Amino acid sequence: MTMMETIKKFRISDCRSRIPFLKNPKSEIRNPKSESGMALISIMAMMTLFSIALLAVAPSIQQSVQREKELEQIRRGEEVAEAIRRYVVYYQGTKLPNSIDDLLEGLPQGTKKVQILRESAAIDPLSEDGEWRLVPMNKLASFARRVQNYNNGLLPTSDNVPQTISNQVGAFITNTNLDSEDDTTGGADETDEDSFDTTDTPFIGVVSQSQSKSVVAYYGIENHSKWIFTPLFRGAGAARVGNGIGNGSGGGRTGR
């Protein structure tokens, strides 16, 4: 091999080693459809997991909301009961309110009237139309027995209302036949058969139109249709009901 051939061969091989390797431009092109498809799958997977998590906590959230509504109803019912007490005390037991409006109008005091019930408390948060059902004195027997059962067989007295009212209620309770155990300890899904009006009837208590099972227990009762809010049965003594008599207390009404 001549000198010139050697030099040419060297130069050619040297040039080849210095020329960079050119990649195929097609190998660098990404498929946009493939990337968007993967992103969509990832989003759907996250949404599925989120939905499962929501389904898991939904019952507890719903129960918490229902509990707050029931506690609010109890607060309003207690306000109505106190307004009824003030009303009958003012009229010394000779007159009962005939409608919620009677309580909203207030009581005369000189040339003015004293408010005894807030408008918000006049609305039942658990009924569709917001109206309380009015409970007359002759339909308190079942509730009285439930209070008695809750209070270890002792019915608290009604010292906070005029004696004429408590005597009349006691007579109605005593003369009502509640021999059946189901009359007073029916299941939470069962409702009372008594029908109540929402206006134009003398009443000593109110009850919700809702007939649903409750989350909160009121006097151990777990059905809205059996929660009667009345100023009666709140004394520290004991009232005679049928053959039962003793000492009791009206405290501790709300449970759970």
Written overview of the protein:
The protein is mainly alpha-helical and 256 residues long. The chain has one domain (66-255). It has helices spanning 3-18, 32-90, 100-104, 141-150, 163-175, 182-185, and strands spanning 107-109, 112-114, 133-135, 205-207, 213-218, 221-223, 228-229, 254-255. The strands form three sheets. Strands 3-4-7 form a three-stranded antiparallel β-sheet. Strands 6-5-8 form a three-stranded antiparallel β-sheet, with helices on one face. It is elongated. The N and C termini lie far apart (107 Å). 28% of the residues are buried. Mean pLDDT is 80; it is low at 180-185 and 240-252.
Share in helix: 40-55%
Number of strands: 8
**Strand order of the main beta sheet, please?**
3-4-7
Beginning-to-end CA distance, first to last residue = 107 Å
Structural category: mainly alpha
Counting structural domains, the number is 1
Summarize the main sheet.
3 strands, antiparallel
Distinct helical segment count: 6
Low-confidence stretches: 180-185, 240-252
Radius of gyration: 38 Å
What is the helix/strand order? HHHEEEHHHEEEEE
